[in-house]
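Record type: monomer structure entry
Structure origin: computed from sequence
Chain ID: A
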Amino acid sequence: MSAKEAKDAGEPASDQTGRPLVRKFDQRLNALITAHYPDDRKRPGYSRLAKEIRGATGGAISGTYLWELATGKKRNVSLEQLDVLAEFFGVPPEYFLNEEVAERVNSQLKLASALRDVRVRNLALRADGLSPATLDALLTMVNEARKVQNLSRVDDDEVPGGSGLSD
């Protein structure tokens, strides 16, 4: 079935490989690498990363193959390699294949990344125990501060356990 026929039939169009399951594999792998190693200067090369993955999981993966996956040059991932990558990065294997799972994990990765900043952690810890009205007031102030600094809006559905407060 062609992409046009799939679209006309109401099916999701596949990528250039014709395989919708691997459509965003490289983007998702790179998002995990960036989340795991947020500092570009400390991020390992693919060879060293493959060695870390092998050491942590016992799974076999080469640096070259990892580079090919991360750059989209290769998309033929075995289930074993998918499991190895998922285990190393602490995500379910479905993260690489399912849009809904990927969105949920990405929101959790954003939260984990934000919590690496000691000031964000301190703010969250100090807010614990405050009344719902006070928390809503603080969220309103943070939303306004984000607007003043021209930062993108953070929707409550992007944050696990979001409050439902909108600005």
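Annotation 1: The chain has eight helices and no strands.
Annotation 2: The two ends are 45 Å apart (CA to CA).
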